[in-house]
Design a protein that fits this description.
alpha+beta, Transferase(Phosphotransferase), domain 1, three-stranded antiparallel β-sheet
Length: 794
């Protein structure tokens, strides 16, 4: 196809009357394909006449500083567009000090006045924290309408995300906040129709603010809306075909914004193209799927697939094939963040089951992670055992491993100096070290391999799985390295994939490592026994908990025979066996395993280390579950002391503080509990976010402590506020939401608001029932709440 000739003919024909264009093209070109394409482009352009209408190119001179518009004085130009300019203004009437943005219309045809007045009326009716407020309006001395808007000091959403290097989940949450604002507008029959990054600002507090309703329309009761100019790269195809806009039009626009936040480019790039060619491309080309597009940021694998499906549905060409409402689009995004099945993948073979199993990992592993968050309520962190960092015992490492660690420390310290001296940021230090280590590996895989393995393990221990994965994967697949090192990398990568909920790949990697070690079982006997720990976790996550228990029981004597009764690896086995017994529902049998682990930590001088910390927490939680809070409290107190000294502020420290505080609640020591639980909630919000189980659980415990102190109104405010935040982050069906509903239900019961208490507790029961055995303790706690306040049993 001769596209230069197509564009030449199109431009020349477009200047002629519409009735003459087709005949003129046929007379001036002999190439049938070129004629057909040109006529097709002309037809598309004529169908989008309003969109292609030129606006006045030359506008009046920029308003000078000091020019007055009513009580407002111009202080400078903020920007300009096809319909006018936007100025920074300040009140000049002496009433009070206030800055604002004044949007002044150009002297355009009367048809554009209607659009301007429509925007002003829309803004007057949209009272929402996500919309820049209308403050004033009027007509200038030269007859040009203007309106004064709240001046949002912030950055466009794409710039905000890039400058702060936000991760994928944080970007999705920003879009969800915009969706809530758009939903507010839709509820008032207002379509924005020009959703794009530059029309979504993020202010200094991190709040998204939707601006520029200049092409918005009021949706008529029949769904029709008059078309106006808009931004093509985010315009839904129906807008370019002269068809009516609908709520699905804004779904397309907001999905386009999310697509750009994840990939760094719009769904269909048409910038710089002739307008007719661009229209044709938008109308006929499907956006490249997220799964096939290079992304601007790293997206976790389990989230990537869901976002791919959601965006594919939201960006479909036909409006009826998209999400019909912005709320439906947002609901699927929330499900994706909560690792729940999304509507966009309904019917996909094996998807719902896989997502179910992944969501079930934490209640199975925790065996009561929220199981006691209601009955005096511990966010029990037995699951920390499954996530505990397995520091390798230096005494049994080969000399090469010791040298590798020393070399890595040298890289790290040298990187610290070059990246900013002793005050350099830890992340920058690690990044600098990673670059040096990978460069060395490229030059000499045999010598660089151990260093890369050490770095991958370090990232793994720091819970930075996205940084650990590529290093370990590259090493496990590389040629020219020690086969044992490749097997060890595959084993560690299996643990990474297990943490990332990819059970199938974790199982394949583990089998690969074990196959190598079986080639010389006498030599690698210890590694094989060590690998049974990960094998047991895989069995548990596949629903084979009893097999996991049997596997560890069978290998514990082997571990003792190899390492001795008082060795760190033996302590790890005792601890993990206790975790599996809890997962199998045999809590009392787990206590001797945890006690045996504690004896190992004491005998080896490791009773102030991270392994002892983990076992302390597990044993204390079991005492609480068994109705022995008096035995649990000193254990939790000791665990908090150790974790504070080792790790400072962290999500895990917040969880321990919460556990300790809730134990004090059970012991009727609410004043001590309040102090710990306030600290836990603040630390959980800071380190794990408002959408975390840590925050939900500590807030629920704080509410209960305040209730014991006869401060029921404050208890209600704490529970209500946390419930709203957690619901927004995780969706209404997450178990953490049920925890807070039960906490608020408890308060309402104490306040005598029986109907509300009954409703909240019923909703909590419905949210906890799907957890099965892991939810039994919570349901029993709700039963006791009902009994305490004379409420009917659910």
């Amino acid at each position: 196809m001769n596209w230069r000739e197509v564009e030449r003919l199109f431009d020349a024909a477009a200047d002629r009357p519409a009735s003459e264009r087709a005949e003129w093209v046929r007379q001036n070109c002999d190439d049938a394909d070129v004629v057909r394409e040109t006529l097709s482009l002309l037809e598309s352009a004529e169908a989008s006449e309003d969109f292609l209408d030129p606006v006045v190119e030359a506008g009046p001179a920029v308003m000078p500083e000091g020019r007055r518009f009513g009580p407002w004085r111009v202080e400078g130009l903020l920007g300009s567009g096809g319909m006018g300019e936007v100025y920074l203004v300040a009140r000049a009437d002496g009433e009070f000090r206030q800055s604002a943005a004044l949007k002044l219309m150009r002297p355009l045809p009367r048809a554009y006045w209607t659009r301007f007045q429509t925007e002003r009326q829309i803004l007057a009716e949209l009272e929402h924290p996500g919309v820049a407020r209308l403050l004033d309006g009027g007509i200038s001395d030269d007859g040009r309408p203007y309106m004064v808007l709240e001046h949002v000091q912030g950055s466009a959403i794409d710039v905000w995300c890039a400058t702060r290097t936000l991760d994928a989940s944080a970007r999705v949450r920003l879009v969800l906040e915009v969706a809530e604002t758009v939903s507010h507008a839709h509820a008032r029959l207002v379509l924005h129709r020009d959703l794009k990054p530059s029309n979504i600002l993020v202010d200094e507090t991190g709040r998204t603010r939707l601006i520029d309703f200049g092409v918005a329309t009021v949706l008529a009761t029949d769904g029709a809306a008059t078309e106006t100019p808009l931004s093509m790269e985010y315009a839904a195809p129906e807008m370019l075909q002269g068809r009516s806009a609908s709520t699905a039009t804004d779904v397309y626009g907001l999905a386009g914004v999310l697509y750009e936040l994840l990939t760094g480019r719009p769904p269909i790039g048409v910038s710089g193209q002739p307008i007719a060619t661009a229209v044709r491309q938008v109308l006929e080309q499907e956006p490249v799927r997220l799964s096939a597009a290079p992304t601007a940021i790293s997206i976790p694998r389990e989230l990537h697939g869901d976002l791919d499906a959601i965006l594919a549905k939201a960006l479909r060409r036909e409006a009826q094939d998209r999400y019909p409402t912005i709320d439906g689009f947002a609901a699927d995004l929330r499900r994706a963040l909560a690792r729940e099945p999304i509507e966009a993948r309904r019917g996909e073979r094996g998807y719902a089951l896989g997502r179910f199993l992944r969501r079930r990992r934490w209640p199975i592993t925790a065996a009561a992670a929220i199981a006691i968050s209601l009955c005096g309520g511990l966010a029990m962190s037995l699951w920390q055992a499954e996530q505990a960092r397995r520091e390798r015992d230096a005494a049994v490492r080969e000399q090469a491993r010791l040298e590798a660690v020393q070399q890595y420390m040298y890289f790290m310290l040298r990187g610290a100096s070059e990246a900013g001296g002793p005050n350099a940021d830890a992340g920058r230090i690690l990044d600098t070290a990673a670059q040096r280590v990978q460069a060395q590996f490229e030059r000499d895989p045999a010598r660089g391999g151990p260093v890369m393995h050490t770095l991958g393990e370090l990232f793994f221990y720091l819970d930075d799985y996205e940084a650990a994965e590529p290093l370990l994967r590259r090493l496990s697949e590389a040629r020219g390295v020690d086969p044992h090192l490749a097997a060890s990398a595959a084993y560690d990568l299996a643990q990474v994939r297990l943490r990332q909920a990819d059970v199938e790949e974790a199982a394949r990697l583990l089998a690969r490592a074990q196959a190598f070690w079986r080639t010389d079982e006498a030599r690698w006997r210890s590694r094989l026994v060590d690998s049974r720990l990960v094998e047991a976790r895989l069995l548990r996550d596949q629903g084979e908990v009893e097999k996991a228990v049997d596997l560890l029981r069978a290998n514990l004597p082997v571990r003792i025979a190899i390492s001795g009764a008082n060795h760190r690896e033996t302590g790890v086995y005792h601890n993990d066996l206790g975790v599996m017994l809890v997962a199998a529902g045999d809590r009392e049998a787990a206590i001797p395993s945890f006690q045996a682990a504690m004896a190992v930590w004491a005998a080896t001088g490791l009773d102030s280390g991270p392994d002892a910390l983990n076992t302390l927490n597990n044993l204390a939680a079991l005492h609480v579950l068994g109705g022995r809070p008096g035995q649990a409290e000193p254990l939790f107190r000791r665990a908090v002391e150790v974790r504070r000294s080792l790790y400072g502020r962290s999500a895990a420290t917040a969880a321990l503080l919460s556990n300790h505080g809730k134990t004090l609640v059970q012991l009727q020591r609410p004043q001590e509990a309040e102090t710990l639980l306030r600290e836990a909630a603040a630390m959980a919000r800071e380190t794990a976010g408002a959408g975390s189980l840590h925050f939900a659980s500590s807030s629920a415990g704080l509410s209960e402590a305040l209730l014991l102190l006869d401060r029921s109104e404050e208890a209600a405010r704490i529970a209500q506020s946390a419930l709203a935040e957690v619901t927004q982050e995780l969706g209404p069906r997450h178990p953490a939401v049920a925890v807070l509903k039960a906490a608020l239900g408890r308060v309402r019961g104490a306040q005598g608001r029986r109907a509300e208490a009954d409703r909240l507790l019923s909703e909590a029961e419905a949210g906890l029932a799907p957890l099965g055995p892991a939810g039994a303790a919570q349901l029993e706690a709700i039963r006791k709440i009902r009994s305490q306040y004379g409420l009917p049993q659910g």
